[in-house]
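Researcher: For the annotation table, I need structure tokens for GTP cyclohydrolase 1 type 2 homolog. Please keep the output clean. Sequence:
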Amino acid sequence: MSPRLPSPRLDEVIAELERVYPPRLAESWDAVGLVCGDPAEPADSVLVCVDVTDAVVDAALEAGATLIVAHHPLLMRGVTSVAADTPKGRIVHRLIRGGCALYAAHTNADKARRGVSDALAETLGLLDTVPLAPEPAPALDKWVVMVPEGSADQVSEAMFNAGAGALGEYRNCQWSVVGTGQFLPVDGASPAVGAVGALTRVDEERLEMVAPRHLRRLVLGALREAHPYEEPAFDVFEQAVTDGDVGLGRVGRLPEPMTFGQFVAHAGRVLPAAAWPVRGAGDPAATVETVAVCGGAGDSLIGAASAAGADVYLTGDLRHHVVDESLRDRSPALVDAGHWATEFPWCESVADILTEIGCRTTVFQDPTDPFTVIAGPKEQQ
């Protein structure tokens, strides 16, 4: 049996959540982060949910949870009061009195890896997924610096410490080659190598590395500080913007093709059961292999699914006219699996992440989809 990790504080839990789901990914209109709670307090018992309802708060307080992690922000739309006699204020007051913090990860969790659409795609069994609407990768500069051979390490290290040389999960990345540098110091110069009036040739390393564009001033300062030359030779090239590995939705492929009718049935089997059924719009006999998904309300990405070559696009909250017009424009077949049901698989992902850092984590299993009363077939009425 592996030793139990020490109980983390709330600020440590938040740091891990924001490492996986960076707040910078959230839409400008969103309200993610800590809603209530003391970051210095323990957060050893966590309940994960999609929506913060009274039933969720009941379960959290009954279990002695010290933190609720929710997908939907309780205070996403502006409020002027959290008085206890208002619906949202009542929840905030109950949580504070019960010593339970509340944290929300919404559109940042929609876009990040190990996020909402990743969990949905995994539940459906999709392979080789990429973002359906990718965010641009961080803007990068490419730095090329000429350094005398004996000083290359000190210049590289200084630039690395300023934030250069990072590629994904790798650090201190660079490429170098040795060549011959030439310069002629003139009056007023104070050369580290050579003399005024003497043409000088030096064995130099050409160092190449990338750095985030917003760190340009820091990297340049580090370069000048560490370089032995009075006037170091360097170039800075702005890299072309490329698609990143995060963004809304995912598109991938099924392990084996199936018909659209079979895919709708498959989605109904593997997705969590809400009160209302999964419904599809398209030819039941059409072959499905490439599948696009987006957890929650995703009708804005129908065009992206079509552009990605998807055979079917599964999301929630599809509207009649949007579906009708999209199918007329030869969009992919469309599946509405419900808002809650397409986001709920993410809860298990969050639970796994927080368990890894020592939290006792449970998932609120009952559907919080507000549509709970569904009419049966007419012949049964």
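Researcher: And a one-line annotation?
Model: The domain at 140-238 is CATH 3.30.70.120 (Alpha-Beta Plaits).
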